[in-house]
Amino acid sequence: EFMQASWDVEEVQAKGIQQLASFVKDKSAFPYLLRCTEVITLAMKSHLDSLDLQVEACTLLLEILSQALEQGVMMALDESVASCLLHTVRKHSENEEFLPMLCTLLMMVSASEVAAENLRKVGIIPDLLAILRRFLHDAKICSSCCAVLWSLAVSENNADQAVLESAVPVTSAVLQKHLQDGVVAESACSALWALALQGCFTDSDYEPTAALLLDALRMNPERAVLVKNGCLALASLVRLSETAALAILLDSKGSGIELIKDEYHLHVHEPGVAEALCLLMNEMVQYDEVMLHMRCQKMEKLLSEIKLQFPFS
């Protein structure tokens, strides 16, 4: 009430946020703090020029969201909160010190389907792409933005086809730049998977994207989630075009089939990886020429191994 009574007074908002932050360590205060997210984001929107207030508010929201995730509480932030966050993103889109924190906040917020939908509705995707283009060198910003992009693109009722199509070259550039950084590569593979699910690729994208995803698997073989998401992205590409399947077979850096076998044996106890590999192979055998090649590579042997390893899956 104290904050709501004086929206225009920056000092009141700053003191209010500081006071709320003092309750963060008190577990019994958590249910009440959950109700304060709208007040905090409105304070951010009302005082966009105050970087100190933005940082303090962002820090507090991250604390609240972290506690919510720990306790399994999903915060479905409404459209007004999404709009406030968008205003902050636009005002501070060139601040490389503040952006990693802000992008991490967006990543945590977008874990909720409702919040992700609201962020999409207010039109945040072009802003995310602009940030990625500007800060392609920054691993933390790239990782968070790609995670948000995945959450926004994976929605089934997506009406932003043209916007999402423009995300393909940017996301590919992120993966190319950070191939050896497992965290960023994992996030970028997930985003490419979501974009492939939405059919955002053109004919000229299939071969280079498939090659790029294979590179990501080669560079980060030990990361099970990256392998799983990379294979799911490849499966979605192959479903769209035989060109992608042929690119996997004929990759200039070595057979994609041999890579698939190696990845399975490396993650032999990971059902998620096995399932993604099976899905990829299932898409590949839809093409006669590809299936003949897979037979020559004795893929039946691998499939039999998987069947024995996961008889009840």
From TrEMBL:
Which Gene Ontology MF annotations are present? ATP binding; protein serine/threonine kinase activity
Gene3D superfamilies, alphabetized: Leucine-rich Repeat Variant
Q: What class of enzyme is it?
A: transferase
What catalytic activity does the UniProt entry give for this protein?
L-seryl-[protein] + ATP = O-phospho-L-seryl-[protein] + ADP + H(+); L-threonyl-[protein] + ATP = O-phospho-L-threonyl-[protein] + ADP + H(+)
The keyword Transferase is assigned to this record = yes
InterPro entries assigned to the protein according to its UniProt record, in alphabetical order: ARM-like, ARM-type_fold
Keyword Calcium in the entry? The reply is no
- Which Enzyme Commission number(s) are on file for it? 2.7.11.1
**Which keywords accompany this UniProt record?**
ATP-binding, Kinase, Nucleotide-binding, Serine/threonine-protein kinase, Transferase
Q: What is this protein called?
A: Serine/threonine kinase-like domain-containing protein STKLD1
